[in-house]
Specification:
heterodimer, A: about 120 residues, mainly beta, seven-stranded mixed β-sheet, four-stranded antiparallel β-sheet, about 50% strand, B: about 110 residues, about 0% helix
Chain lengths: ~120, ~110
Amino acid sequence: GAVVSQHPSWVICKSGTSVKIECRSLDFQATTMFWYRQFPKQSLMLMATSNEGSKATYEQGVEKDKFLINHASLTLSTLTVTSAHPEDSSFYICSARETGGGNNEQFFGPGTRLTVL
Amino acid sequence: GENVEQHPSTLSVQEGDSAVIKCTYSDSASNYFPWYKQELGKRPQLIIDIRSNVGEKKDQRIAVTLNKTAKHFSLHITETQPEDSAVYFCAARGKTGNTPLVFGKGTRLSVIA
């Protein structure tokens, strides 16, 4: 199946700093990528839909100025958590579908565990 | 938007018994229903999926059924094994390519040897 990578796999940062997470589709092109957040023992909650070459669409309650998304190419989307605080500590997972692919499957990255001290 | 409800939140079964997890969805336009298994700290792994034009799909010990009229779908695992222990999520999605998956809250399955 198609492969989605994320970098870094984990990061620890101080409160008030910014953290960038990269999501790459390694062997397919993805016009659309999705960013999810998962707190311990909870489900995956959609944060935003990232569209190549245009602005991301954010879910209700997700601050677009705090979670900056850039989808500059068909294989790369980045999520920047600005001025991170301890409550932003979570497991961030990106996902992508192949552009124009007939398969419905949505491929997930391995996730990035963010810990804000 | 889509809303997916999942039950039960926890499920314990004896090894060799069957496990059933049920989900309901709200958006009648949804047409794709995958099930994921997630182990601690790892990404969700697709274990089976079904489209709205199919009522049932089976893959070895795993099966999924879909009732479009009632807007519910279920995961069935037969002959459970300890390695089936994990958190299982159902999800639903609409037709268009940029529609995201919406997940249920998950079911923690424990298979007791």
